[in-house]
Amino acid sequence: MFRFENKDILYLLLALPALFLLFWYNRRTLSRNIKKFGNVKLIQRLLINFSTSRPWWKFGLLSLGLLMLIFALARPQFGSKLKEVKKEGMEIVIAMDVSRSMEAKDIAPNRLASAKRSIEHFVNKLDGDMLGMIVFAGDAYIQIPLTNDYGAARMYLDNVDTDIAPVQGTNLSKAINMSVKAFSPDPEPAKVLLIISDGEDHEENAVEAAKMAAKDGVKIYTVGMGTKKGGPIPKSSGGFHKNNAGEVVISKLNEQVLSSIAKAGNGKYVLAGKSGSGLDVILNDISTLDKTERKVEVYAEFDDQYQYPLALAIVLLLIEVIISRKKEHTIEKLKSLKS
Questions:
Q1: For the residues of 268-289, what is the DSSP string, one character each?
Q2: Exposure winner among 46, 202, 236, 267, fewest CB in 10 A?
Q3: What percent of the chain shows pLDDT beyond 70?
Q4: Cα–Cα dist 225/197, whole Å
């Protein structure tokens, strides 16, 4: 198990591209100034200490050194020992709509990308809960059985797209029925189903499926992705999907369907909101549910490995310093030649 203890330090990596642009601008300005004094190749021969490659080598070493230094400050660690601990939690299954309508861009960058961002926001706040995930369109498929490995869930989430479902359409009842199967048969843990969809249901028995799930002890929450105004559904070949009359299909958020499902499942309906903020309402609500104690294996001991990138950073920065610098500024030399 690998991790960075001080993850916030990694934001310093954003400074490296800015440093490169500053260096490039400096070199470009210097090159322009040299051209003002005559033939560039002749001037380079006259300036014994002038080098076009040396500054780039020095900058490369400096950048790599800073990169390693940032990694060292972030404290990379490897988990060295698994330990069994007791944690309280519930069972949560996330059902994500991957139908073509989720590619509509009425919310930026599109509904599916926004749904994935919301789910990641939600998963990052879980602790001790068992998590499962299904995807659905015209049919439903279990992708991640119940697990406490949130890292695996996030990795899978990165690769989800609308091509993952071989049967297109939107069938919310199948999503609910498959989700119920994803829960464990243990009656003790609280069971929560989180459906993330635009609500465009092509069937009409989703509410009945939600009522049946509620009888099995499953509490259903629905999260709306999209807007009431809606948007066209883009085609991979370009343009937008059209109906039989040749008109562009406008996919709209169906809040009524999602609200009815949540009501039948004794839960709540929320609009996703920016950066998954709508799911915070669900998190607050399910936090009041009874949690079951279970034993889980976690990495309890982590060994610091910062010394390796730190040593490499020191070596790189020393080499950068050792490389000889110019004895005089190039422009000053050029001025002396011109005089």
A1: -EEE--GGGTHHHHHHHHHTTS
A2: 236
A3: 83
A4: 6
- Per-chain mean pLDDT for the chain: 84
pTM tops 0.85, yes or no: no
Which tokens in the block code for residue 97? 């709509």
Helix (H), strand (E) at residue 55 = helix 54-73
Residue 309: in which H helix or E strand, if any?
A: helix 307-322
Q: What is the pLDDT of residue 327?
A: 44
Report the alpha-carbon distance of residue 236 to residue 115 in Å, rounded. 20
As a whole number of angstroms, the distance between CA 212 and CA 222 comes to: 16
Q: Are strands 2-4 and 76-89 parallel, antiparallel or unpaired?
A: antiparallel
Contact call for residues 194 and 221 (beta carbons, < 8 A): yes
Token output for 269: 């309906």
Give tens-digit pLDDT for 161-197.
Answer: 988 888 888 899 999 999 999 999 988 889 999 999 9
Q: How far apart are the first and last CA of the chain?
A: 65
SS3 4: strand
Pairing of strands 218-224, 191-197: parallel
Identify the three-state secondary structure at position 100. helix
Rounded Cα gap, residues 58 and 65, in angstroms: 10
Q: Distance between CA atoms of 143 and 146, rounded to whole angstroms?
A: 10
Beta strands in 60-125 (DSSP E): 76-89, 91-97
CB 74 within 8 A of CB 298: no
